[in-house]
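Hi! If you just cloned this repository, the fastest way to understand the data is to look at a raw example. We've pasted two of them here, unedited. The first protein comes first, obviously.
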Amino acid sequence: MKMKEEVVYRKMVDADYQEVLEMVIETWNYREWIEKPLVKPMAEFFLCDLLVGADDVFVAVIADKVAGIVATSHEQWSRLQYVWQRRQLKALLQLAGFEDKNYIFAQYMETMNIDEELLALSGKKYGGALNLLIVKEGYQGLGIGGKLYKHFYDYLQGLGVKNFYLFTDNSSNFKFYDHKRLTRVNQKNFFWKDKDGEPHKKPEIYYLYEGNITI
């Protein structure tokens, strides 16, 4: 990509959805560890779970292509509502006989419960959350992530929010948040299992970070 190409920052529209979905699939390498028929539905579940509770979704666009996204929530839903929503979906999947056929999805739901557990263990109430922040491969190193993060920060600051949280893991660029001087509050290991139920040797580590906002 040429450095001279303009980066446009704007609200996400529905026409951006498929590009954002593909960005999620590529960022977390869905095609490498999920059976092909389940790649898109699992990625959509993950993405929609993050977007449904967001009240501000902003994208970075270069040459009409989405290069990054940031999604913010501001006390729109209580955490219990998120838990109940996921339980409802899990029940629907069980009724459809889908979950029993996909050992990965069952574990995926477990990892979402880890996030809620980490938040509960913090014993804190936050005014906002960073739901999602991705910069597409090939567009990294151009300052897009920093500008999207600043948009997120400024948005909450304008609402008078004093603090926020986010979930991430060691398969993501969690060091970005260390660089932003956020505080790692809690973490938990999760060992993914193969089809035979054998756990992987190395765990995936899930983190809860928090940050303060200067009013």
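Ok, and the second one:
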Amino acid sequence: MKNIILLLFVIFSSCSQKIDVSKIDFINGYWQIQKVEDANGNEKEYKINEFYDYFEVKKNIGFHKKVQWQPTNKFLVNDAQDNLKIIPKDDKVFLEFYSQFGKHKDELILLSKNEMILESKEKVKFYYDKVIINTNK
């Protein structure tokens, strides 16, 4: 019985991944949302999405904005954006978004060169894939 408890502990502790703050620059660039999962496990997938999330962060301060890709390899961009602060706290990393319209904080659950997962305080998870865009045509 002790071995089973130990095994379960190892499995569950390995599932929670600590964010390496030294690699926070992976957040920079274009991301496309793939799905959203609510607190009950219900999922909504986004198979086609013409909007991208653009993040730019330097020294834990930056911004986030929505951009719309055009077939001319250009983006439609407006002045609306959220300022962004990266907040490491108690082995977790939070992204604090703020603008003139309000603020909110999401936990960064996963960040790699190709994937990102954010979780809201309501336990809604946002799954993103990195998008490499060639605008040199």
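That's it. A detail worth noticing about the second one: Residues 2-15 have pLDDT under 50 and may be disordered.
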